[in-house]
Amino acid sequence: MNYITNFMNSIALIRITDIIDMAIIAFAVYKLFSLLRNTRAEQVLNGLVIVLLIASLADILNLNTVSWVMNQFLTVALVFIIVVFQPELRSALERIGRGRSILTRDRVKRNETTINELVSAASSLSRQKIGALVVIQRDVGLNDIVESGTELHSDISSELLINIFIPNTPLHDGAVIINENEIIAAACYLPLSSSNTISKELGTRHRAAIGISERSDCIVLVVSEETGNISVVESGRIDRYFDADSLSLRLKKDLVYQPNAEEVKDDENEQEWQ
User: What is the 3-state secondary structure (H, E, C) of 228-264?
Assistant: First the structure.
């Protein structure tokens, strides 16, 4: 009964601010694991958790030598992580700064005609086994990537996209950048992902798609020239084997803006005033 009484007394001492404090820490730890998932840093983070458990156990059992060694190791490990895993940490901080992966998944208005043109082009390129790499910009700007290629600023059409990626044409080597229903540039160079979890059967084009998606909130379409398979890459994750119907559904899900109830009500009020 004393244990129960002590437990209840401890519960009674917990304040609302304590609950909020614990919830914030739990959320931060969860997001840290989510941001580093499928990266080189994930395995190191798992190792650090094990070292922390050993260090805590050593303190409880008064194993002074083990405890000293663990503390020295953790001191050096912090510097080691910052130096070695700088790309992964930078990517995580960029994603935090965008706020997309933490607070909301804001959707950008896209013309469904544009999506239809993208699907038509990807399907045709897939049938002909012509490689393609199309980056669809969202909130995060890609000016540095655009500057590496040839600026076009043209309307989107499936015919133009197909002609761009025809082998041995001037603009076929590189990525196409699309923003606000417009082809901004072609033959752009993308940063390659340094992740060691990427399948060996995926080539440079897929690694480049994953690399740019790790650094921005863009959506990337990839058509493999070896197999003709269509893939979609977002936030460092690649989904493969799309056909025309599934690709259309995916793009509409990710790119077509869905107004909430309040916005619909505002639009109705504006129409009434008109």
Answer: CCEEEEECCEEEEEECHHHHHHHHHHHHCCCCCHHHH
In this predicted model, what pLDDT tens digit does every residue of 208-243 receive, in sequence order? Answer: 999 998 888 889 999 999 999 999 999 888 999 999
pLDDT at 271 over 70: no
Any idea where the domains of the chain sit in the sequence? 2-98, 112-255
Which CATH architecture group holds 112-255? Answer: 3-Layer(aba) Sandwich (3.40)
pLDDT 10s digits, 68-125: 888 787 777 777 767 766 666 666 666 666 554 443 344 444 467 888 899 999 999 9
Question: DSSP letter at 199?
Answer: -
Model-level pTM?
A: 0.59
**DSSP sequence for 11-56:** HHH--HHHHHHHHHHHHHHHHHHHHHTTSHHHHHHHHHHHHHHHHH
Which pairing describes strands 237-242 and 230-234: parallel, antiparallel, or unpaired? antiparallel
